[in-house]
Amino acid sequence: MAYFLDPVPALDEVVARLQGVDIEAAVNTAHVNLPGAWVRWAGYDSLVLSGEEFVRVEVVLLVGAMPLDEAYRQLVALAEEAVEELGYPDGPVRQQATLFANDPVALPSLVLPYNVA
Amino acid sequence: MTIQAFKPINGTLSLGSGPLAVASQVLACELVPTEKVKETDPIPVLSGEELAGDSSATVTWRLKFKIFQDLRAAGIVKFSYDNSGDEVAFAFVPTDDTDHAASFAGDCVVVPIKVGGPVSKTDRAQSDVDWRVVGTPVPDWPGA
Fold it and tell me: Which of the ends of chain B has fewer CB neighbours closer than 10 A, N or C?
């Protein structure tokens, strides 16, 4: 018996659902186009007696560098579209600045956590 | 000495004659014994002697578990409504650890499971279940 659930199918499912509603989404940061979503693996959650658990996925919504008030509006609009498709997140939504490798600009972002069975 | 311990994971919990397998909903499960002691005071008599008091003890059991609520027609909440007040069989295996492969079976009295909970955008609804076990659960200790 495998001890850990493969997270990739869960990540791919979330990417596909976001792309289905025209949100640019990718697991690999090099493939994320802005505005869009970086779908990342954050671990596991909610272990049950049978040993099954959820894959914890974070949808990191990103917009380009711009004045913050405009960035926040765009992030909220993007979040509305994502939640329409994925449902309410499974944990607190948080705002953060996100830095990607080889890019010195911190991007405004909003993180939506989901537990995927 | 080697420490003997197990992790309560990859276990099973089944209910009723179906049986309904619910381990995928269960966040915690315990079979809990409680001792009830009954004591009577010594009784003094006119001569100054005392009639000694009595004491006796009984052990009762409860099946307690925490679940994700499942409101589907095939789910545990409907099972609890359908079997309210009934004695149903249960079987509990706490772990798949082969060194600790004990299992416990018995009958318990079903009480409908609480539905709903705090309003939340983020948390799945859970319920604590506490059912009376009829008599004493029967353990199976493989290798004993």
Answer: N
Helix A68-86 to helix A8-20 angle (10° resolution) is 110
Which domains are present in chain A? 7-116 (3.30.2000)
Report phi then psi at A70, rounded to 5. -70, -40
Say if CB B118 and CB B48 are below 8 A apart: no
Burial class (CB in 10 A: 0-12, 13-18, 19+), A69: exposed
Task: Please judge whether A91 and B122 are an interchain contact, meaning their C-beta atoms are less than 8 angstroms apart.
Answer: yes
pTM above 0.95, yes or no: no
The Cα-based distances of B75 to A1, B23, B38, B72, B90 in angstroms read 26, 12, 40, 5, 16
User: Over 90: is that where the pLDDT of B1 sits?
Assistant: no
The yes-or-no verdict on residue A1 having pLDDT over 60 is: no
Strand B20-21, strand A94-98: pairing: unpaired
- B24 and A CB contact within 8 Å: yes
Q: φ, ψ for residue B124 (rounded to 5)?
A: -80, 145
Given an 8 Å threshold on Cβ–Cβ distance, is B11 in contact with A92? Answer: no
pLDDT by residue (tens digit) across B4-18?
899 898 999 999 998
